[in-house]
């Protein structure tokens, strides 16, 4: 018995054919076995034998004879295996990866903002980038210079149950009276308001923060202390800045029941602005400004004196926040949309 007839390797159904199986196919074909008969002997599907014979058939004698060769079948199998499976895009799309890392570290963009902004501006095409999920997988795999500890939202984000607690004074009109269409964020001019404290002492400044619900525009106004008088002075200064357009820019303001906002309802006496107060102990009623306050904490941690930061420092923080591309804004920035709205108001 020659070598081709001494093959004893048994094929396992569902597995790839081995070189020994291919030698057996070559031998059986030479002996005149049909494809179905070979399939029964190798314990596999007749389709598997057909496809294998098609891949491993070579032409002999100037193309006059076609014959299956085990070696040709194995070479075809090896070529196909090289092209099978998912290919990592990390090296192929290195230019985009460098773009992501540059804007992540230098501009403070999120990974999703890098993906969306690159497409929105036409800097990259869809085939030149990887998706947001893939970028996060690269971070987990250690392929990027970015680490999970560099992603502040990934490690801290959680969802809290909404609770409406009673037994706290209400300073004015309840948020329950606010028109429902404001929740849809389709109309410009509806704001949320809060305070950000530093060292929590009377000798430190505080930050008055304002958030426009439609454009996500965020304002930071340093004030001397946490008193109702200082808050009202800041609003009066804003009113003087926008002058006759105040009522179109500030249609409503939603804030909490802190004593520092006790006089805020006076805006209704001097303008058409309506002031709404959130439910007691329910910060999610003004979740937009609360989330943006957390962005401030990346630069001014809790417990640090706000007065140690200059106006330029505060302005730089505000500028960075408003220049962040947002997925919810189709990767435009809050500043871009806010300026468009102001332009349309001032043209009237």
Count the helices. How many? 14
Low-confidence blocks of residues: 1-8
Helix content: 40-55%
Distance between the termini: 99 Å
Which percent band covers the strand fraction?
A: 5-15%
Q: Under the CATH scheme, which architecture of the largest domain would be assigned?
A: 2-Layer Sandwich
Give the CATH topology of the largest domain: Nucleotidyltransferase, domain 5
CATH homologous group name of the largest domain:
Ribonuclease H-like superfamily/Ribonuclease H
Compute the number of strand runs.
Answer: 7
GO cellular component, one term: cytosol
Protein name: IS30 family transposase
Domain Integrase catalytic: 175-342
Organism: Lactobacillus johnsonii
Quick recap:
The chain is α/β, with parallel strands linked by helices. The protein has 14 helices and seven strands.
Description:
- It is a single chain.
- The protein is an alpha/beta fold.
- It has 3 domains: 81 residues, Arc Repressor Mutant, subunit A (Orthogonal Bundle), CATH 1.10.10; 63 residues; 173 residues, 2-Layer Sandwich (Nucleotidyltransferase, domain 5), CATH 3.30.420.10.
- It contains 14 helices and 7 strands.
- Strands 5-4-3-6-7 form a 5-stranded mixed β-sheet, with helices on both faces.
- Helix 1 runs antiparallel to helix 4.
- The chain is elongated and about 105 Å long.
- The chain starts with 18 loop residues before the first helix and ends with a helix.
